[in-house]
Amino acid sequence: MNEPANASLLGRLGGWFSPAASADIAAATSAALRSDRFRLEREGEWKRLEAIVSRIERGRLRGVSDEDLLALPALYRTAVSSLAVARETSLDAETLLWLEGLTRRAWFIVYGPRAGLGDWLLRFFGGGWGASVRALRSEILIALALMVAGTIVGWLLVASDPDWYYALIPGGMADARVPGASRAVLLRTLFGQQDQHGLAVFAAALFSNNAQVAILAFALGFAFGLPSALLLIQNTTMLGALLWLYHGQGLTLEIIGWLSVHGTTELYAILLAGAAGLHIGRAMAFPGEASVLDAAAAAGRRSAQVMVGVVLMLIVAGLLEGFARQLIDNTAGRLIVGTFMLVLWTVYFFVWRGAGKSA
Questions:
Q1: Is pLDDT above 70 for 356?
Q2: Which range in 74-83, 191-200, 335-344 is most confidently predicted, on average pLDDT?
Q3: Domain boundaries defined on the chain
Q4: pLDDT band at residue 348, thresholds of 50, 70 and 90?
Q5: Cα–Cα distance between 128 and 358 in angstroms, integer?
Q6: Can you tell me the distance from the alpha carbon of 317 to that of 335, in angstroms, rounded to the nearest whole number?
Q7: What are the tens digits of pLDDT across the range 278-291?
Q8: Counting CB atoms within 10 angstroms of each CB, which of 88, 121, 156, 337 has the fewest?
């Protein structure tokens, strides 16, 4: 009864010493030896890289020698190359995981951000934002021309046919502000409305519309800037229609004062957003010696920094709209606030240089 078991045992023992099995064992042994040799040849550099990274992570940069700092990029690239080779070999899993973690940590030291949020904000407000805006000077002039043209077009359309007013001004924003409204009715929409909701609704709708236009004007810039240009024109036709309505009742200065409190900041933000979209579109249409992708990427970085500031400007406009305009119930005071904000933004962007550089 023991003969089958003995035969099976003898078969297994024979298989271990067969030529095929011997070849497998030799191959496994050779791979292990190569893996050990691979690790031993490079382990010194890995350990050195880990020591440098650990010191820097602990904030002990002064404890790192100049020689180690100069060697850091080369050590990182060597570790990444070793990791690529190790993934294709039989390097043990524990060492492989350690090497992956080391290269990730080293990447943040070599290529990661060099400053914290506080330093970034200091550079941004200390001149970086303004430098990016100045880099869009040509596009800003184009956007300004489009906005002025849109305002004129809106005025002329409703002047030729008042029915255009209802096409240009959304129904939810019109309320009493419609063609044919008396001077007294229009005057009541500008003054003495602090405790009523009609003015707040109109102002909120206007702000929401302008914020959407600003974001879309930038986001659609990749289509060679054409949608951005059309949005700037379309949005300011509404402004032209509104100015026409109040001008017809001799309230031109009053409506300008009412709009200027927040409008100089809000329209400035739209201007910059439109210019940012045009900047991306122009970079894609006329990349110069660079490739289209490279030109668009460079323009996108600069425009994105401008748009961060645009969002902040829209927040400031919202605060002015919600508080300053409600507290100031006379045209002269409103014009002073609006003019002050217009001069403030212009000086900040184009006169004061600071120390920042554009992206």
A1: no
A2: 335-344
A3: 3-110, 117-351
A4: very high
A5: 5
A6: 15
A7: 999 988 888 888 78
A8: 88
Distance (Å, whole) CA 47 – CA 51: 6
CA angle 221, 148, 155 (to 5 degrees): 120
| Residue 8 confidence (pLDDT) | 55
| Per-residue confidence (pLDDT) for residue 22, from 0 to 100 | 52
Give the torsion through C-alpha atoms of 255, 257, 261, 265, to 10 deg. Answer: 80
Q: Cite the DSSP H helix spans in 87-196.
A: 93-110, 117-123, 129-134, 137-160, 163-168, 171-174, 183-188
Q: Which helix (H) or strand (E) holds 55?
A: helix 19-57
- What does the buried/exposed string (b/e) look like for 227-246 if buried means 16 or more CB atoms within 10 Å of the residue's CB? bbbebbbebbbbbbbbbbbb
Tell me how far apart the alpha carbons of residues 116 and 105 are, in angstroms, rounded to a whole number.
Answer: 17
Residues in the chain, overall count: 359
Closest alpha carbon to 359 in 318, 305, 321: 305
Residues 130, 133: Cα–Cα separation, whole Å: 5
